[in-house]
Amino acid sequence: MQEIGHWINGKRVAGTSGRFADVMNPATGEVQAKVALATLGELDHAIQEAAKAQVAWAATNPQRRARVMMAFGALINRDMEKLAEMVAREHGKTIPDAKGDVQRGLEVIEVCMGAPAMLKGEAMDSAGPGIDLYAMRQPLGVVAGITPFNFPAMIPLWKIGPALSSGNAMILKPSERVPSTSLYLAELLQEAGLPDGVLQVVNGDKTVVDGILDHPVIQGVGFVGSTPIAQYIYGRAASNGKRAQCFGGAKNHMIIMPDADLDKAADALVGAGYGAAGERCIAISVAVPVGQTSADALIERLIPRIEKLKVGPYTAGNDIDFGPVITQASKDRILGLIDSGVEQGAKLVVDGRGFKLQGYENGFFVGPSLFDNVTPEMEIYKQEIFGPVLSTVRAKSYDDALKLVMDNEYGNGTAIFTADGDTARDFASRVNVGMVGINFPIPVPLSYFSFGGWKKSAFGDLNQYGPDAFRFYTKTKTVTARWFSGIKEGASLNFKALD
Questions:
Q1: DSSP E strands: which ranges in 17-161?
Q2: One of 111, 186, 281, 306 is an active-site residue; which one?
Q3: Is 281 a catalytic residue?
Q4: Start-end ranges of CATH 3.40.605.10 in the chain?
């Protein structure tokens, strides 16, 4: 049985705790490896070594740091197939979806190749007599990234790129369910020229997470996961004086107006609702058709599309639409929520509970399900299912549909399909959600903007990647400088304005 350790000071090292977590093959239900769970002593060693390495890395010319990102990006492109297979093997995604996972992370690295432009400060000469003012961005020091299972490449890259480009060292704690991709990315960074110790990958469980949150050397923490854990990490990090950006769960709605192209809307819903088996924080999990006629016509179009979806292991080829969910516990939870929807009166139009795949009976597969006549009081509406389940909530009017989105406790992403520009502009302006799609189902911004939700989908003031990431991973120092040429006055005891 393969044992997966950590990445410390530029090399893979075995764990010493004697504690391990199983790394499953979600398609077969079998244990394919064991990953070491670090002790607090191992974590402390990694952090102290990172702190030593960070000093020289921060003093490295920003353009030279950017060149490491350039080389890193080229290596990711070189090894795209290998990385995608690694993602698919541990997560269960299809190969095309796994390549998308890697690609969207690579795009952030590409922006980091231009990091020097993001790190420029501000200056004003002659702010007062002989007085110049300038502000500079400096790295925080040692920061940490705590990343989830559902994007084994993309989200670690979202954290690594801006943090390292800004001159920080990083402790990366990936999900123990998908550890291999992060370790391989660390190897590629070393090949790209990153000095040893600047990136440490420490595998672990809650012991390591709490150790990161309490360690005095760690200056900032970035997290992606469920809302309860995001809120916990944000609170504990903040109480320890750390900067934190924590992104949680979602319940993303897509409004379908009567004037929308229903065939395009149905295609969008199927892709956004069932891709990656619904294990995306930006997945559309609630369809909101406006008007009875639109709702009936939408359901009529969705049923055959959903029934044609191919579910299977990534090894079955690129025509598979989605694979298994991550664990048996996830499968059981999803099936339980589907049961609750039926019990609470929703109409189960497509039932994926009985899905079986010959030869993979022990895999964590869940067939696609579609609900109609869901109401906000039902558990399938209130909870983030994180599975291949789409709920339809019928709305009588645009205002009712908008209110449904705005009243929801989550605010990660939302979308509207309409042919009317006025409706689209009103929706984008008024909705209290962080990312909005107009005739676009998964509104993940390109990497030179920033990704982030509102309400209980995000805790902290700054978003991921783009300009916000460079603000998060740096602190501003402002210098007021005076040069005495031409100034003949003596000492002043008053606090004077810079006139």
A1: 20-25, 30-36, 122-128, 131-139, 142-146
A2: 281
A3: yes
A4: 2-248+457-479
